[in-house]
Amino acid sequence: MADPSTNTVVEARQQRFERILGQEPFQGLKAILDGVCRDRAALCDAVQGTNSYEELLARLGYSITMTKQIHVADSYSRMGPAGGIRAVLPYFDIPTQSALPTLVHFNSTVTATPKSAAFFNQMLAELKRRLVT
Questions:
Q1: More confident residue, 2 or 45
Q2: Close Cβ partners of 12 (under 8 Å, ≥ 6 residues apart)
Q3: At 104, is the secondary structure helix, strand, or coil?
Q4: Does residue 27 sit in helix, strand or coil?
Q5: In angstroms, rounded to a whole number, what is the distance separating the alpha carbons of residues 109 and 34?
Q6: 32, 36, 54, 95: which is deepest, by most CB within 10 A?
Q7: What is the pLDDT of residue 11?
């Protein structure tokens, strides 16, 4: 039987993780993470146990494919098993005036532009910083 104090610490850590991830600056990252992992405890552990966005995706069972540009409207037309796209996540960062779309595929890959991957890598670093303070 598990020690009740350990369960309380784990629960508190997960609650803190969810609270911080749910904050405004992390909405885009949260949408991607929700698209690739439904197990919240595993997601919390993966975020805390990795150092980069690409490493996080790999730990969750996804590889990342870089592409120069993503045409969001075209991607919506290819959603579904036949087109191979499970989710289109068209994130727009207002402060930088940047479109940072991400595609989640049925074959366990995530497609991103180098700019969006770098942006979400920074978001992950900031999330991790807030989790330890």
A1: 45
A2: none
A3: strand
A4: helix
A5: 14
A6: 32
A7: 58
What residues does each domain of the chain span?
A: 4-132
> pTM, whole model, 2 decimals?
0.87
Q: Residue 60 has what pLDDT? A: 96
Q: What residues contact 68, with CB distance under 8 A and at least 6 apart?
A: 113
| Phi-psi domain of 97 (left: phi exceeds 0; alpha: psi -120 through 50; beta: other) | left
Residues 6+ apart with CB under 8 A from 109: 62, 63, 64, 65
Q: Where are the beta strands (DSSP E) in the chain?
A: 63-66, 85-93, 98-105, 109-112
CA distance 92 to 128: 22
What contacts 20, CB < 8 A, 6 or more positions away? 26, 127, 130, 131
CA-to-CA dists, residue 15 to 34, 42, 51, 53, angstroms: 16, 13, 21, 21
